[in-house]
């Protein structure tokens, strides 16, 4: 399990669905970033959650549930999964993160993502990690930039225009964030 000074990481379980949907993914600003339609239903959240659980089973890595240590609340997700693009390289591993809006702008996404990049490079021995986000998602771009990821191109991701950032293992500071 990963840990940072303010966050602990655990595996998701199907019982996380209601909280994940009601508190986090149904929030308009979160849904706007996660879904091309700008909304997330309970069924879509359930599909996402099960896809995450399956990814762990199939590949031995995936997205973690984030627990905020001070109040022990589930506050979002952060992890790694294979980037699913039409015609893209299926071996690319993508960094993913989302936080409960009440916990934004406290440096938590950057803290979680730093620990996940360290895990990806030091434990999973990945050569490179990529991330994609919409051109209007400044918060997500800032997280990527603060991690040392570099903008490479603009591409289509599931029919949506996204900015594509990368970081090779050789450019990541391998000290874990604590
Ligand atoms: C993207 C997201 C995870 C960032 O979480 P966060 O914990 O607020 O991020 P951090 O506090 O680590 O902030 C990282 C940087 O982004 C900046 N930032 C955060 N929110 C911002 C906003 N709305 N507009 C501009 N900059 C923003 C912070 O100021 C910080 O930069 P700085 O240190 O130079 O000031 C969060 O906004 C979120 O969950 N958004 C909805 C879902 C989403 O977009 N997921 C990613 C899909 S690609």
Summarize, please:
The chain has 178 residues and is of the alpha+beta class. Helix content is 33%, strand content 28%.
Distance from N terminus to C terminus (CA atoms, Å) equals 13 Å
| Strand numbers in spatial order across the main sheet | 1-2-3-4
- Order of helices and strands, N to C? EHHHEEEHEHEE
Strand content: 25-35%
How would you describe the shape? globular
**Which fold name is given in CATH as the topology?**
Aminopeptidase
Q: Helix count, per DSSP?
A: 5
The main pleated sheet reads as: 4 strands, antiparallel
Name of the CATH class: Alpha Beta
Number of domains: 1
Helix fraction by DSSP (H/I, runs of at least 4): 25-40%
Count all strands and give the number.
7
Low-pLDDT residue intervals, each spanning 5 or more residues: none
CATH H level: which superfamily?
Gcn5-related N-acetyltransferase (GNAT)
Structural class: alpha+beta
How many whole angstroms does the radius of gyration measure? 15 Å
Explain what this protein looks like in three dimensions.
- The model has no long low-confidence stretch (mean pLDDT 93).
- The protein contains five helices and seven strands; from the N terminus they run E-H-H-H-E-E-E-H-E-H-E-E.
- With 178 residues, the chain is α+β, with helices and mostly antiparallel strands.
- The strands form two sheets. It has a four-stranded antiparallel sheet, with helices on both faces. A three-stranded antiparallel sheet has the order 5-7-6.
- Helix 1 crosses helix 3 (42-59).
- It is 33% helix and 28% strand.
- It binds coenzyme A (COA).
- The site of coenzyme A (COA) has 21 residues, from helix 2, strand 4, helix 4 and helix 5.
């Amino acid at each position: 399990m990963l840990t940072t000074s303010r966050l602990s990481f655990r595996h998701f379980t199907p019982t996380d669905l209601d909280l994940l949907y009601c508190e986090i993914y149904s929030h308009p600003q979160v849904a706007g970033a996660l879904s091309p339609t700008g909304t997330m239903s309970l069924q879509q959240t359930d599909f996402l959650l099960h896809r995450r659980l399956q990814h762990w089973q199939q590949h031995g890595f995936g997205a973690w549930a984030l627990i905020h240590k001070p109040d022990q609340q589930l506050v979002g997700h952060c992890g790694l999964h294979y980037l699913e693009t039409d015609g893209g390289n299926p071996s690319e591993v993508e960094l993913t993160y989302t936080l409960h809006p009440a916990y934004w702008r406290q440096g938590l996404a950057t803290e979680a993502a730093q620990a996940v990049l360290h895990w990806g490079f030091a434990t999973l021995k990945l050569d490179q990690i990529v991330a994609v986000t919409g051109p209007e998602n400044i918060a997500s771009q800032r997280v990527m930039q603060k991690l040392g990821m570099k903008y490479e191109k603009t591409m289509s991701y599931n029919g949506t225009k996204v900015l594509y950032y990368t970081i090779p293992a050789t450019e990541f500071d391998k000290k874990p964030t604590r």
